[in-house]
Amino acid sequence: MSARQVAYPDAVAAMEARAAAIAEGRAGELVWLLEHPPLYTAGVSAKSSDLLAPDRFPVFETARGGQYTYHGPGQRVAYVMLDLTQRGRDVRAFVASLEAWIIGALGRFNIDGEIRDGRVGVWVERRTPGLPTREDKIAAIGVKLRKWVSFHGISLNVEPDLEHFSGIIPCGQTLHGVTSLVDLGLPVTMDEADEALKASFREVFGEVEDAPAPL
């Protein structure tokens, strides 16, 4: 885990170097927990029309799957560098495991995280008396594989400034909003979110050991 905010280009360079080392057998798998300063990233399917405020924050094109997303303080980013040669070369099953990881972590706070056909990420239902039920996104998923080693990963909204998402159409979704643990009324700290993520990761992917962050 990195205690300070990590610049996005530095994170990408470190991820790519680690993924290459894993593929070559020179390094072990790693899940890297960090925060970024406010920024937008454009995945390989991003549409320029979904960037509503191009001058608001730095914008980075990225090799991960998906469209536009926001990263910033209060959001836990987890970059997942795993060797799928050792874990089964099944991309669909890998993404399903990432979804189960997030859903398991949310369950530790009594939140029912759900997935939806045609929509990437993890969603929660918002029920307000007298109003229609709505669905908000609480976690995003965007990964890349190279030589069957994954990089990029997930982001979980713990307590980011949700207004920062207004500069994009997140993941191309115009009919749904975004939320966070704190927005749902849960005073969860980043440390508590990390513990939930670590516990759920062990259940889905297996035991892990603490390791130094790349940066």
Q: What characterizes the major β-sheet?
A: 7 strands, mixed
Order of helices and strands: HEEEEEHHEEEEEH
pLDDT averaged over residues: 95
Rg from Cα? 16 Å
Strand content: 25-35%
Shape: globular
Question: In angstroms, what separates the terminal alpha carbons?
Answer: 9 Å
Helix content: 10-25%
Low-confidence stretches: none
Oligomeric status: single chain
Overview in brief:
It is built from 4 helices and 10 strands. It is of the alpha+beta class. The mean pLDDT is 95.
Question: What characteristics describe this protein?
Answer:
215 residues, alpha+beta, seven-stranded mixed beta sheet, three-stranded mixed beta sheet, 10 strands, 27% strand
Write the layout of secondary structure elements.
Blueprint: H1 8-23, E1 30-34, E2 39-42, E3 59-61, E4 68-71, E5 75-81, H2 84-87, H3 91-107, E6 114-116, E7 119-126, E8 134-146, E9 149-157, E10 177-178, H4 190-205
Parallel strand pairs: 2-3, 8-10
Antiparallel strand pairs: 1-5, 2-4, 5-9, 6-7, 7-8, 8-9
Fold and architecture overview:
- The chain is of the alpha+beta class and 215 residues long.
- Helix content is 25%, strand content 27%.
- It has helices at residues 8-23, 84-87, 91-107, 190-205; strands at residues 30-34, 39-42, 59-61, 68-71, 75-81, 114-116, 119-126, 134-146, 149-157, 177-178.
- Strands 1, 5, 6, 7, 8, 9 and 10 form a seven-stranded mixed β-sheet that branches. A three-stranded mixed β-sheet has the order 3-2-4, with no helix packed on it.
- A hairpin with a 2-residue loop joins strand 6 and strand 7.
- Helix 3 packs across helix 4 (190-205).
- 36% of the residues are buried.
